[in-house]
Amino acid sequence: MIDSIRTHSQAHGSPYDGPEFPVKGHVLPPDYWEVVRAADGFVTHHGFFRFFSASSEGPQGIRFRNASPSVDAYGALLEGFVVIAEDIFGDMYGYSADETGAPRLSKFYCEGGEIESCEPSGLPAFLARRLFVQQPDAFDLALASEALGSGIVPGLDEHLAFTLPLIAGGEYDVENLAVESTELHLGLLGQMSLAHSELPDGTPISGFTDDPSSVPGR
User: Fold this and answer.
1) Model confidence, pTM
2) Whole-angstrom Cα distance, residue 4 to residue 23?
3) Which percentage of the chain shows pLDDT scores above 70?
4) CA 178/CA 20 separation, integer angstroms
5) CA distance 83 to 193
6) What are the DSSP calls for the chain, one per residue?
7) How far apart, in whole angstroms, are the C-alpha atoms of residue 48 and residue 93?
8) How would residue 30 be classed by pLDDT, with cut points 50, 70 and 90?
9) How far apart (Å, rounded) are the C-alpha atoms in residues 144 and 152?
10) Closest of 132, 12, 147 to residue 90, by C-alpha
């Protein structure tokens, strides 16, 4: 695991040697601790994938992220979902509960709030097969690479964001991409996704704001 992390990352933490702890009241499965005990957080090349630290109390820490206003903005959509990582587009990866209540590795789409189970279902296998390969497919590598080639380059506290969100009718192409801060991007999409979840498909969304001070929890 550590060799793969070193090969595919621009930065990674030292092995985590602290105690296990719950996040949002949920116990994390052994495969999560297996990864952080190899490297306590990592960022793949170009910041395409950011795996949060267990020990950090800052913005790249798992506890910070799960208690942040940008996560609170999704309200019930992220209730019971423990975020452990994100990709450059702001989609989140973590654990939701399966039918038995056991943690299930899942991807949470920041636009719309849909949750899908990850394949493979084990975190080390998911990283090995979907991320630590020449052509990772956990996210849209082609679009991310096109954006970077066009000079649209977010920092680790920023995302590639659709200027007109897809759930508001925006186009899925590089011309609709820009750099936005994590807080503004997810705060806005959280409001929109909550509104969208309560309406029939195709209903125009209104009543949201791009004022970050209005994000729930602030």
Assistant:
1) 0.90
2) 26
3) 90
4) 38
5) 17
6) -HHHHHHHEEEEPPPP-S----BTTBPPPHHHHHHHTT-S-EEEGGGSEEEPBSS--STTBHHHHHTSHHHHTTGGGGTTPEEEEEETTS-EEEEEE-TTS-EEEEEE-TTT--EEE-SSSSHHHHIIIIISSSS--SS-HHHHHHHHHTT----TTEEEEESS-GGGT--SSGGGEEEEEHHHHHHHHHHHHHHHHTS-TTPPP-S----GGGSTT-
7) 13
8) very high
9) 9
10) 147
Give me the chain's average pLDDT, please: 91
In angstroms, the CA 119 to CA 98 distance is 14
55 burial type by CB count under 10 A (0-12 exposed, 13-18 middle, 19+ buried): middle
pLDDT in tens, 102-140: 999 999 999 999 999 999 999 999 999 999 999 999 999
What is the per-residue pLDDT across 6-28, written as a single tens digit (0 to 9) for each? 999 999 999 999 999 999 999 99
Is 80 within 8 Å of 115 (Cβ atoms)? no
